[in-house]
Amino acid sequence: MNFFTIKDLENLSGIKAHTIRIWEQRYNFLKPSRSDTNIRYYSNDELKKILNIALLNKYGYKISHIDRMGDAEVKEKILLLTQVQAQQERIVNDLIQCMVDLNMERLEDILDDHIRSRGIERTITQIIFPFMEKIGILWLTNHINPAQEHLVSNIIRQKLIVGIDGIVTSLKVNKTVLLFLPEGEYHEIGMLFMYYLLKSRGVSTIYLGASIPLNDIEYVVNLKKPDYLYTHLTSVGDNFNFDKFMSTITKKFNGTPIIISGMLTNTYEKKIPAPIHFKKSFPEVMEFVATL
Fold it and tell me: Which residue of 9, 71, 137, 229 sits 20 to 30 Å from the alpha carbon of 207, by its own alpha carbon?
């Protein structure tokens, strides 16, 4: 069983910690335990409850009304939500619940159903990315077991690879983008989605994969002369120095535009050296793809 902090509940549900504390005082649906140092912590079941309650509250149900509902009625009301955004958020919450329960069969069924009805690209943008965004903080703070991260990541990775292999397009863009993750970076999902986006739009793509030494990248760059280098930084190793990395790739690949996206770009506050360009959000990534 996982144990979650009130900050975890805030990140996953979107409900501020202050509000969660008020709800605990006034209502009966949350009963956190306390550590020896008197810090609140919450179980898997309480995480599921707050996700469901937050969703109903966001779409019009008063907390006092929700508090009087049983678990079955809460689930019934959630299934009756008709707003498109609410339905997408419900699916994301279902994925989170599958993850904490290690119910990988159910998680895969949810993804497969959405892929069949909406396609791989919509599934990624509407379901997988919001899901990864929510749980990414848990991975970085070690508030879920590494086994959960590996199981979920591998399932999503498989779906992306199937989507990439299945691309058939008549589009042709006269640009080449080399995709790589630097040494110590193994979170491949963002890069695989970029691979899918570029390939589906007819861009010539060289995909090197995860944790690639810069000397190996240099060899391919000298041989293939790509128009852009692209990397996505989520959670690199302890020895990774962002300043040194950018300085090194700027010298090695002088004259080749280098695009960097991912969580680390949102925490970097120094001047970005040319020819590096940060893409700090999904719309910025899509804008880059559209300009090729």
Answer: 137
Helices (H), the chain: 6-13, 17-26, 44-58, 63-67, 71-79, 84-101, 104-118, 120-123, 129-140, 146-165, 189-200, 214-224, 242-252, 282-291
| Of 199, 287, 194, residue with least CA distance to 234 | 194
User: Which sequence spans correspond to the domains of the chain?
Assistant: 6-163, 168-291
Gap between the Cα atoms of 265 and 280, Å rounded: 6
- Which architecture does CATH list for 6-163? Orthogonal Bundle (1.10)
Q: Tell me which architecture the domain covering 168-291 has in CATH.
A: 3-Layer(aba) Sandwich (3.40)
Measured CA to CA, the distance from residue 134 to residue 136 in angstroms comes to 6
Q: Please, where are the H alpha helices in 166-204?
A: 189-200
Q: Do domains 6-163 and 168-291 have the same CATH topology?
A: no
For 94, 110, 144, 197, 277, the CA distances from 106, given in Å and listed in that order, are 9, 6, 19, 27, 39
> Rounded to whole angstroms, what are the CA distances from 252 to 43, 148, 215?
49, 37, 9
What's the angle, vertex CA 21, arms to CA 20 and CA 22, rounded to 5?
Answer: 90
What does the pLDDT look like over 173-231, one tens digit per residue?
Answer: 999 999 999 998 888 888 999 999 999 999 999 999 999 999 999 999 999 999 999 99
Q: β-pairing, 203-207 with 228-232? A: unpaired
* 17-54 per-position pLDDT tens digit: 999 988 888 888 888 787 777 777 888 888 888 999 99
Local structure of 115: helix, strand or coil: helix
Locate 209 and state its tokens.
């994969």
Question: Considering only CA atoms, which of 32, 29, 6, 28 is closest in space to residue 19?
Answer: 6
